[in-house]
Structures are given as C-alpha cells and as structure tokens.
Write a structure and sequence with these properties.
250 residues, alpha/beta, Rossmann fold, OB fold (Dihydrolipoamide Acetyltransferase, E2P), 2 domains, elongated
Length: 250
C-alpha cells in the first residue's frame, strides 16, 4: 500500500498594520517553500475580512493591535476561521487568544527558530485541505544562517539592530538601554533576561545584573570594571569568574 502524499504547502495570509512585520514574515515564509506559501498581505482587519470571503487560506498570521478593528475582533467576526497564529508584542492577550482557539501565539520580534517550529507543527498536523493541487516537491528546509541582528520595539517603531553595532545593554528599571557604537541609545521594553536569550552567547556575556556586553568591544578589565569601547561597565562579583573565563578564552 503506497504512502499518502504529503499535504500541500500551507496557504498563509498576514494581517498587520506594520510594514516591517510583513517584510520579516515574508522573508521567513520564502525560506520554507515546501511547508508554506504566501497568499496575500493585508494592512488592516477590515481589508482581511473582505479578502477572506473569496480567498482560501489555511493559516492566518494576525496582529492584535490595529486601528478600526483589532485582530481579536476580526477573529470573533469570522464564522469559520482558518488556523490562527497571533503575532503581537504583548503577552497580555494570551489567555483570551487561547480561549478563542488560536493555534499559536508568537511574541514580536519573532525569531526564525520560533517561527519554523510553528509552521512545521501546523504543516504536520494539517489535513490535505486542497487536494487538487499538485503534490509538492520535497524541498529540504535549509538551515538559516546564524542571525546577525535583532528587532527592537522602541517608542518610534521597530528597529533592526545588528549585533556588531551593539556594544552593551544596560538595565533601566522596567526597560533596557541598548548602547550602540554610533553613540545612539535605544530604549526598549525588553527585559534583561529576554535580551540575554536573544543575543548570541558566543558574542555577548552577562557581567552584572544590569549589564550585558559585546566581547568584541572589551578593551580591558580594570579592577571591578570592564572598559567597553571607552565606557566603564561594572562587573558583579557573582559574574566575575565567568567574565574572566570568557576573556581568557576569546
């Protein structure tokens, strides 16, 4: 008995009022042609409501905070919604989202590793929703190159910051300051723990409860401080041994 054909790539629609979100997810989807395909983009929930009446969609990537009609209001208005993945910068919507039966919940900025887990799981569990399509050619998912940047949400929008431009991260109450080599400082609502998990461990090291530094900009260790690109950064006693190990092993 022959094996059943693999399901066709998931037809995906992105609804988000931020152009950068479309750029990022479109780039992610282009990396997995055997698993997912791009159907269309909508920059508002009302536009999406109209499109969904005539266009078959398997997965809806849906922002929450949008003008006129929010993502959750759109979801409630759909009599038979496709699988929905909420994409938002706020974790406060999670409970309501899962009560509405969303398939997944992605926090911005969305990392490719997290995105591919969602797509792979949805693709594996999806029925053959459009059997008339030609069976997809098996396309191996090429491992993406190591990321060289991250996206930070600031008071003026979402900004891409390359790791090579980030000299250190400083805790600042409920926010963090990102000090760039250009002299600019970006203030974002990310926590130190989130920043530590998003920055490459081979390049960045935690030196204090309130500081992460980029090793490429460390000039010297002086007493209980590091000189990082001309700036003194304190080294906490609980981090000192690890800092010394990392500096000696560079």
């Amino acid at each position: 008995m022959s094996a059943s054909p693999a399901p066709a790539p998931l037809r995906c629609l992105l609804v988000d009022d931020e152009p950068l979100a479309h750029t990022v997810l479109r780039a992610y989807l282009d990396r997995v042609p055997g698993l997912a395909t791009w159907v269309s983009s909508c920059y508002g929930a009302v536009e999406a409501l109209t499109l969904l009446r005539t266009t078959p969609v398997d997965v809806l990537f849906l922002d929450v905070d949008m003008p006129e009609l929010t993502g959750l209001e759109l979801l409630r208005a759909l009599p038979q919604p496709p699988q929905v993945v909420l994409c938002t910068a706020h974790a406060t919507h999670a409970l309501e989202a899962f009560e509405l039966g969303v398939a997944d919940y992605l926090l911005k900025p969305i990392r490719f590793e997290r995105f591919i887990k969602t797509i792979t799981r949805l693709h594996t569990s999806a029925p053959d929703q459009h059997p008339t399509a030609a069976p997809p050619v098996a396309v191996p998912v090429v491992a993406p190159p190591a990321p060289d940047s991250l996206f930070l949400k600031t008071d003026v929008g979402t900004e891409r910051v390359r790791f090579t431009e980030l000299r250190c991260v400083e805790g600042y109450g409920n926010f963090v300051k990102c000090h760039l080599v250009t002299g600019r400082t970006l203030l974002t609502a990310e926590t130190m723990k989130q920043m530590e998990s998003e920055l490459p461990a081979a390049q960045f090291v935690r030196v204090h409860k309130s500081y992460l530094v980029n090793l490429q900009f460390v000039e010297r260790l002086s007493g209980n401080s590091l000189v990082v690109n001309g700036r003194e950064v304190p080294v906490g006693s609980t981090f000192r041994a690890e800092v010394l190990r990392r500096l000696q092993g560079r």
